[in-house]
Write a structure and sequence with these properties.
It is a single chain. With 320 residues, the protein is an alpha/beta fold. Helix content is 43%, strand content 18%. The chain has a seven-stranded mixed β-sheet, with helices on both faces. A four-stranded parallel β-sheet has the order 7-8-6-9, with helices on both faces. 47% of the residues are buried. Bound molecules: 6-O-phosphono-beta-D-fructofuranose. Residues 11, 72, 102, 126-128, 170-172, 223, 253 line the site of 6-O-phosphono-beta-D-fructofuranose. Its EC number is 2.7.1.11. InterPro entries: ATP_PFK, ATP_PFK_prok-type, PFKA_ATP_prok, Phosphofructokinase_CS, Phosphofructokinase_dom, PKF_sf. Mg(2+) binds at residue 103.
């Protein structure tokens, strides 16, 4: 192994820079050359590749986003596109690749390994915490802090105005961000993708609690469940209190990574290089019960399920 490359792909996440830095510096320490691929698989396809040195990654551990840029590149699903990408990697003399991203990015990495014998290692980079084979993804804790900070601010204004606030949180089909934000933000209601949503039940619960003397309420809900602006209108019409909906959106994807994400990303980046040096390929890195682990990428995506944290939801319900 002489030359490795690193790319970030899919939605960016705070801590990706720390992961790139760790890959670059631990590879250089082992005497390897490192290349940065800009804008994910799209940049690989268009040959946006540059050699990196230790100063290329100076001062980035504190920065959100990814200095390499990221992209969603659906064309990578085509075998001929992947073949061209493998050829480009080989034309630079690159003999292994570290991919930092979500499960779509993982699938791309595995296919490069399977179809072209190209050694790839995946690192879990997404705020959603929805990747199997790891307890935490890079970026999740920072996004959680951002969501809780927003909820705290909404609590102030919703309390002053005796309003009901609905906060829509990212996470796709995974409730981790929503439920944890609900507990930390002391929210009254958490609506998550893993549990069937009944608008009627929610409204009845709110009606009862306002009849019992409640003056304001905070509802957190994962994206893609319902139109939160319509939900606000429906609640207001029935309960009588003014109701506002706030979609936190991409605010949750930005910002300086928290210490947890910086450390996680640094450990995972260094581990990826270790695995490549041991000859591992088609593997994805995780952290489980505080230990760094690695799994076959396809097995992780197809067979491992991230458990729904029902216990957290129960705690959030108990404490409101
Ligand atoms: O996967 C990360 C994520 O932020 C999801 O939470 C969200 O559904 C999606 O990406 C948004 O994607 P985009 O940035 O392409 O709009």
């Amino acid at each position: 192994l002489k030359k490795i490359a690193v790319l970030t792909s899919g939605g960016d996440a705070p801590g990706m820079n720390a992961a790139i830095r760790a890959v670059v510096r631990s590879a250089l320490a082992e005497g390897l050359e490192v290349y940065g691929i800009y804008d994910g698989y799209l940049g690989l396809y268009t040959n946006k590749i540059e050699k990196l040195n230790r100063y290329s990654v100076s001062d980035i551990i504190t920065k959100g986003g990814t200095f390499l840029g990221s992209a969603r590149f659906p064309a990578f699903k085509k075998p001929e596109v992947r073949a061209k990408c493998a050829e480009i990697l080989r034309s630079h003399g690159i003999d292994a690749l570290v991919v930092i991203g979500g499960d779509g990015s993982y699938t791309g990495a595995k296919l490069l390994t399977e179809e072209h014998g190209f050694p790839c290692i995946g690192l879990p980079g997404t705020i959603d915490n929805d990747i199997p084979g790891t307890d935490y993804t890079i970026g999740y804790q920072t996004a959680l802090e951002t969501a809780v900070d927003a909820i705290d601010r909404l609590r102030d204004t919703s309390s002053s105005h005796h309003r009901i606030s609905i906060v829509e949180i990212m996470g796709r089909h995974c409730s981790d961000l929503t439920v944890s934000a609900a507990i930390a933000g002391g929210c009254e209601y958490a609506i998550v993708p893993e549990v069937n949503f009944s608008k009627e039940e929610l409204i009845q619960q709110i009606e009862r609690s306002f009849q019992d003397g409640k003056h304001h309420a905070l509802i957190v809900i994962t994206e893609l469940i319902t139109d939160v602006h319509q939900l606000a209108k429906d609640i207001e019409a029935r309960v009588g209190n003014e109701t506002r909906a706030t979609v936190l959106g991409h605010v949750q994807r930005g910002g300086s990574p928290c210490a947890f994400d910086r450390i996680l990303a640094s450990r995972m980046g260094a581990y990826a290089v270790e695995l490549l040096l041991k000859g591992e390929k088609g593997r994805c890195v995780g952290i489980q019960r505080e230990e760094l682990v690695h799994h076959d990428i396809i097995e992780a995506i197809d067979k491992m399920r991230r458990p729904f944290k029902a216990e957290l939801l129960e705690v959030s319900k108990k404490l409101f």
